[in-house]
DNA sequence: AACACAATAATATCTGATGTTTTTGAATCA
DNA sequence: TGATTCAAAAACATCAGATATTATTGTGTT
């Protein structure tokens, strides 16, 4: 009766995390263990392991003897997250552009191309594929910094990206044309190995995103 | 029979983390659940929750269907950790020095004083209180950046500090006189609100520590 | 409206059971 | 000897259920 192969644990983790990021589990809401048991078809043990992991990443708050809550959102937190993303992602981008090889370039071209296609659809009004867009945006930003040479840095960045993404998903509005241009500019500067322009444009990209998200918050 | 109040969970977490940082649980070693059950007097449920948390922080590796291992150490990882610490801690220091108030100053003076006393003992040959020294060093570095205004930044830094500390504990040797001087220089620059000097000295402090640790690795 | 207090619900922990996967160790074969 | 195979043993991931403790809720009283 007991499924193994870490199926339950891994999938529960991913689904809960996804539901938090996409707002299906509202910020601040209580995560009752019995409720989660039904919703995710997992046992209490597995759920508590998952929630502990998410708590340590900062997506869930664990209050002593009062259980688990989806981490609340706030303007200050959003600002902190965006600033940290600028700090880490720009730093990683500089390292990556400085030492990326041919494979890195190829992967980056592919990622930007796919993102660009998706952005055209979004601009044309197809708002249905938020989840796909998220994936392409993520893959592009990852491709930019992937050659930074620091697994630890990539891992920290990944968590920050997801936290930032939750705020973007909360406000629901797409920034559009402007963001597309910024993506292209970072992309071209990175390919041209123009480190300063790439890093500055990336900073602008994140800062503008922050403004946009803050305005709608 | 079942203790509650989150006593078991919290204490188990702290003890295992401490044992990893201080090398009582060797890098790469297997964390057998039955063994841990005896050693830490906790049930499998609690242990798995704890290990998941530590895995997500990077102190433990969770291998699918093969259990938990103390995260291995490597030169590359040490270098990455040190570089990230420089990036985050110097950034935080700049923010903190720029906006620290009187309480911040007072706390910093106290932290440096206590650290200095402990350093004198260490220099005099009393090598027995590594754990105390660790606490005072931590409190000093925390006091420096505590006014940075970003909880997220402080939280990321705390994990990095502990990871870096494990490497320091592994090589067992104290850098001595030189580190004491660097501490004092950062301290004085911070109090004088000389942001650039403070940040540069802190960078030197961490870089020198890295060299020292790498040499003995 | 504020308070006390019992009833209810939820949590943290532990034990023990089950099916799977990994590891071990011995026997076999090249 | 060294490599291979395969069954036994060990360890893991998951689940269900029990207990003690703590939080929440609702009701009645002042």
Automatic annotation (TrEMBL), chains A, B:
Limits of the HTH gntR-type domain: 6-73
Organism superkingdom: Bacteria
One Pfam family per UniProt: GntR
GO molecular function annotation: DNA binding; DNA-binding transcription factor activity
SMART domains: FCD, HTH_GNTR
Keywords: DNA-binding, Transcription, Transcription regulation
Keyword Transport attached: no
InterPro entries listed in its UniProt record: GntR_C, TF_FadR/GntR_C, Tscrpt_reg_HTH_GntR, WH-like_DNA-bd_sf, WH_DNA-bd_sf
Entry keyword annotation includes Lyase: no
Protein's UniProt name: HTH-type transcriptional repressor CsiR
């Amino acid at each position: 009766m007991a499924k193994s192969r870490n199926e339950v644990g891994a999938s529960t983790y991913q689904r809960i995390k996804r539901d938090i990021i996409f707002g299906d589990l509202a910020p601040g809401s209580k995560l009752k263990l019995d409720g989660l048991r039904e919703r995710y078809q997992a046992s209490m043990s597995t759920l508590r392991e998952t929630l502990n992991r998410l708590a340590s990443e900062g997506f869930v708050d664990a209050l002593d003897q009062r259980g688990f809550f989806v981490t609340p959102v706030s303007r200050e937190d959003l600002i902190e997250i965006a600033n940290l993303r600028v700090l880490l992602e720009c730093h990683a981008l500089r390292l990556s552009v400085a030492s990326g090889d041919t494979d890195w370039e190829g992967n980056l071209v592919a990622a930007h191309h796919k993102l660009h296609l998706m952005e055209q659809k979004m601009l044309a009004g197809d708002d249905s594929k938020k989840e796909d867009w998220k994936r392409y945006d993520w893959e592009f930003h990852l491709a930019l910094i992937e050659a930074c040479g620091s697994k630890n840095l990539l891992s920290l960045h990944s968590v920050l990206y997801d936290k930032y993404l939750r705020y973007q998903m909360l406000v629901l509005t797409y920034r559009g044309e402007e963001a597309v241009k910024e993506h292209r500019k970072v992309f071209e500067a990175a390919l041209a190995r123009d480190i300063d322009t790439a890093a500055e444009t990336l900073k602008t990209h994140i800062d503008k995103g922050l403004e946009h998200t803050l305005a709608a918050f």
